[in-house]
Design goal:
alpha/beta; Aldehyde Oxidoreductase, domain 3; TIM Barrel; six-stranded parallel sheet; 12 strands; about 20% strand
Length: about 270
């Protein structure tokens, strides 16, 4: 179930849509939404939900996760003309941002397809405040994995945690205090730290800002210590550089998927009144 969409529309409408109330007749209308470039699509459920808040019915011609050619009509909407125009920008904003994320994720997943061993493309917590659910959903629709959703569902011991608790050895000693069933990931900067973390029982070890060669070497060594441990490559990895880590890590995480993505352009056109 998606979160309540009302606050997103209310942010735009405020006390009321002045332009619609002055310039638009109180009549019904029909419009179509078109994808303007080749892209994966995501956010159709959210766009339809936004329109429903103003009494507008949406009919989808495609499904979230589909890959579309430029010029594809994705949705037809029918209902009060004022509602169509009031909800337009909020609905399109969902489509544009979520589709951009899904498409970049899809293209990154495809760039490492067939690598051995296989790897997952993962998102990070570098998301837009208040919009994380939708950005993570878009990553999933693009074929990526969401990684941890927040601070509450997985342990991530990073460099500042290590400094604050006295180092990697002390951190490993504290693993026993983690609630049962919660996975533990540790960020490491070198092989020695990785070995300590693996021997201590970490589920995932993040090779932070390591080269592909060093990441692969760490993976080969740590798998012998703890066969089920997962190695994550992370640190300024982009769509263009992810392929360099193919075959070197089990997970390749990219903040770019959510913090620097280019939106896919959609337009809405009134076709009849």
């Amino acid at each position: 179930m998606i979160p309540d969409l009302r606050p997103f529309l209310e942010e735009d409408v405020g006390a009321g849509d002045i332009t619609a109330s002055v310039f638009l007749p109180e009549t019904d209308g029909r419009a179509v939404i078109i994808c303007e470039s080749r892209s994966s699509v995501a956010g159709l459920e959210e766009a339809a939900g936004i329109f429903s808040l103003v009494g507008v019915h949406a009919h989808q011609y495609v499904q979230d996760g589909d890959v579309l050619d430029a010029g594809t009509t994705v949705m037809e909407i029918n209902g009060p003309l004022r509602g169509l125009m009031t909800a337009e920008r909020t609905a399109l904003n969902f489509l544009m941002r979520m589709s951009g994320i899904a498409d970049l994720t899809r293209r990154t997943v495809e760039s490492i397809k067939g690598c051995s061993p296989p790897a997952f493309i993962a998102a990070t917590r570098k998301t837009t405040p208040g919009f994380r659910f939708f950005e993570k959903k878009a990553v999933s629709l693009g074929g990526g994995i969401t990684h941890r959703n927040g601070l509450y569902d997985m342990v991530m011991v990073k460099d500042n945690h290590l400094r604050a608790c006295g180092g990697i050895e002390n951190a490993v000693h504290l693993f026993k205090n983690v609630p049962e069933g919660i996975k533990i990931e540790v960020e490491v900067e070198n092989m020695d730290q990785g070995i300590v973390a693996a021997k201590g029982g970490a589920d995932v070890i993040m090779a932070d800002h390591m080269s592909p060669a060093d990441t692969k070497k760490m993976r080969d060594v740590l798998k012998k210590i703890r066969p089920n441990v997962l190695i994550e490559a992370s640190g300024n990895i982009t769509h263009d550089t992810a392929v360099r880590f193919a075959g070197c890590a089990d997970i390749i995480s990219l903040g770019e998927l959510t913090h620097s993505v280019r939106a896919t352009h959609f337009s809405m056109d009134i076709v009849s009144l």
